[in-house]
Amino acid sequence: MRSDVVTLFPEMVLPVLGQSMLKRAQDKGLLEVQVHNLRDWTTDRHHVADDTPYGGGAGMVLKAEPVFRAVETLRARAASDLRIVIPSPQGRVFTQRTAEELSREPRRVVFLCGHYEGFDERVRLGLNAEEISIGDYVLTGGELPALVMIDAAARLIPGVLGDPDSPVQDSFAEALLDHPHYTRPADVRGLAVPEVLLSGNHEAIRRWRRKEALRSTHLKRPELLQDRLLTEEDRRLLGEILQEEAKRQSVLCAEEE
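RESULT FIELD:
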């Protein structure tokens, strides 16, 4: 995956890219991320990249021309087409599927990180930029969303994670939440690891993990199951879960009485 981050605040991005998995991915040559200061494409001596909005109102708007020059420079360096992404709450929602899509993107991905009141609308129109949202809330800028998208996509690139099966088992990898995880010691303050995980019975462990993934999804994000094509085993496990939950609710009601 090859990408660029254009921002007014490179210092918000660089420390994260220099840590943990993202650093290792870059060291291995599996991920390339270049960070650019938008002010480098301004032309005045004060390197001003924003101005007041036409029509009045609060806040400042990032100028279009420095962004156009930045993208033209990056396109010339890449000698190929670019995929332009603007992190924005107005965009389509970022999902695991979007992360998979970015991880396989053959083009260089340029993240344009807005700030203040965002970009002059002509940036989106002139560059045919794609808006992507990481959620229905507003942040101070596009740097954190860009890092979220880079991180989510990078871990799906073969060779980035130590265990190649890890991305397959992640929450949302197949529209299910992940099962619970435990490590040593077997008892922590009276909370014990489920016995099945200590049994050494691989089939029983697999079945438990599948059931708990279905249980987590049913209890926390039931909408994920609505359009999912369930296997016969999944339907059987869900039936067990529903019976167990009904029994648990019955016990709770009896205790309250």
